[in-house]
Write a structure and sequence with these properties.
It is built from eight helices and 17 strands. It is of the alpha/beta class and about 400 residues long. It folds into two domains: about 80 residues, Immunoglobulin-like (Sandwich), CATH 2.60.40.10; about 230 residues, Glycosidases (TIM Barrel, Alpha-Beta Barrel), CATH 3.20.20.80. An eight-stranded mixed beta barrel has the order 9-10-12-13-14-15-16-17. Strands 4-3-6-7 form a four-stranded antiparallel beta sheet, with no helix packed on it. Strand 3 and strand 4 form a beta hairpin. It starts with a helix and ends with a strand.
Amino acid sequence: MDSKVKRTAIAAAVTLIAVVLIIVLYLNGTFERDKQGAPGTQQAGAASEGISGNDLKGFLNDETFWDPEPSVLSVSASSALPRLFLQGSSVMRDIRLSVLDDSGNAVTGQSFYVNVDGLGEFKDLDQDGMIYIPELKEGEYFVTLEDVDGYEVPEDPLRISVKSSLEYKVIDDIALYIRSEDEINAEIEDTAVKDAESEADDTEVQRKWEGTDAVLGIDVSKWQKDIDWQAVAGDGIDFVIIRCGYRGSSGGALVEDPYFRKNLEGAKAAGLKTGVYFFTQAVNEVEAVEEASMVVELLNGASLDMPVFIDTEGSGGRADLINRDMRTAVCKAFCETINNAGYRSGIYASRSWYYNKLKDGELSQYTHWVAEYRKNPLYKDDFALWQYTSKGAVNGINTKVDMDLVWSGN
């Protein structure tokens, strides 16, 4: 190698070494500054505003201490939409739909639309969470709840089987249709008219009946208000038939008697034999099955010593307009549904109602309870119970009360 080339190689090597040294020194200085703390940062053990070596909570004042929260946590659980559920059933040639919340209660105050495959759209007009679709052909139907602002609706359609014949079976979702008197106008809905009172004569016995082998009882409803059942039992009363509810004379709602539960519990606790009755305003057999289903729902498995009666009489309302054939069919449908639920059934009516408003000969298989206010009833067919006055007086009850006689074995 000549001297010129040699000098050039040495110069290049020296330059390379110098560059390497400069890089090493630069990096080393940066590392030391990081250990000591960059300008504006706090060194360990050094004092600064809000933080000191002895202040263990000082970090709370350091806004740079906390990492930003992940964005996914900024969505609270409460922002999820409430869910709706669609429930349906069919009694005969109809679809009965309910829009429910997470608790299984009907959602009210909101308009809902459903689409029935092949039939089109239907609306909950009165915003009670219920939609009734009548006059359908037998078959399978698929129902979809349409989107509702502010709610999550089911994605899959509901399948409902519609039958063309009536089965006398308790309706599973009948509880959704039962109302309290707070939800209706009881003054215009609870309007029974006692035909027996207009047909009474001056032989009517208005006291506790004596000198008979029949057993003495009463029937009660909300009209008797609060009752001292121990006093009733102590006054020689052996049984009571309690109204559990009624269908509205005008609107047709199913309404629970506000005193039913209290009366049933009190009478049982006092050792009285018990039965129940329901004041019907059914205008067809389907409504009669509804009414019987309501009774079974309200009883909730409670045992009874006496039958469940359908009370059919005038009201100045909706059921006054049906004919004898339909009224007889209503009584049959009610009683058969009650029988199939494991209870005994019966019919309550006045003598003239049995003879003029029912085809009584077609109802002989059901226990008869006759209202006729005279010493010797004119009703000549078989009956097991007799309501002989509506003007009785019994200890523990502060109003007039219906008095009844029942013969042994009923």
